[in-house]
Write a structure and sequence with these properties.
7 helices, 25% strand
Length: 253
């Protein structure tokens, strides 16, 4: 029955479903996991790296995390090419706002613009939904540290902790049970992120080569975006008592 209604994004099924949007969400559920955690002194992003080849020239760039402006960053799950279009759009919107008003764009206003674009791709013929979900984190002077999650339909919501990608239901189950409202600092957030990603990766010894971390914190009253290096990730794993075994790490140069 669904084959009669899933060839166009603008056609509802008799059950009131848009199958193309649901298919986009299914593509996201098979992508690498990403998690974001709101802490009292910052906001943390962590993600699973799928490309771990020794031949890859990464040059310090994260695979699933992107800086939009000095005060806002995103983690993505889904089709990277689709994410690049939205990220470029978000960067342009942030700079236009800064040029017009001489101040950083509020986080939710930026997300609203992104989601308006995503929603438009579910409403007009000849288009398909963006096959990517975002975890948007940042800080502004109006609401402080913030975390939002958006999906291909253009819907979004604010969260204290959220996960997207592969095994996200399991990840959210860990977050619900272990996240402490109002008392989680960045150190606790890093340990919790390691525990969540270990759950999604189905391993007790996650490798630093398969993880990436970034954060937004305040320094001298200004937001600072930081991508963690491999030694820093190894230290996070050690603090979380999930360091890799010597046998596993010795052959990875």
């Amino acid at each position: 029955m669904s084959r009669r209604y899933d060839s166009h994004t603008t056609i509802f099924s008799p059950q009131g479903r848009l199958f193309q949007v649901e298919y986009a969400m299914e593509a996201i559920s098979k992508a690498g996991s990403a998690v974001a955690i709101l802490a009292s002194d910052g906001v943390l992003l962590a993600a699973e790296k799928r490309i771990t080849s020794k031949l890859l020239d990464i040059r310090g760039l994260a695979e699933k995390m992107y800086k939009i402006d000095d005060h806002v960053a995103v983690a993505v799950a889904g089709i990277t090419a689709d994410a690049n279009i939205l990220i470029n759009y978000a960067r342009l919107a942030a700079q236009r706002y800064r040029y017009a008003y001489q101040e950083p764009i509020p986080i939710e206003q930026l997300l609203h613009r992104i989601c308006d674009l995503k929603q438009g791709y579910t409403q007009f013929g000849g288009l398909r939904p963006f096959g990517v979900s975002f975890l948007v984190v940042g800080w502004d002077e109006y609401f402080g540290y913030q975390l939002y999650r958006s999906d291909p339909s253009g819907n979004y919501g604010g969260w204290k902790a959220a996960a997207i990608g592969n095994n996200s239901p399991n990840a959210e189950s860990v977050l619900k049970s272990d996240y402490k409202m109002g008392s989680t600092d960045m150190k606790m957030a890093r340990s919790l992120a390691v525990k969540v990603l270990a759950k999604t990766l189905d391993t007790t010894n996650p490798s630093p080569d398969k993880l990436e971390f970034s954060s937004i914190t305040l320094k001298d009253g200004k937001p600072v975006y930081k991508v963690f290096t491999k030694p820093e990730i190894e230290a996070i794993l050690k603090d979380a008592n999930m360091g890799t075994e010597k046998k596993e790490s010795s052959g990875d140069i």
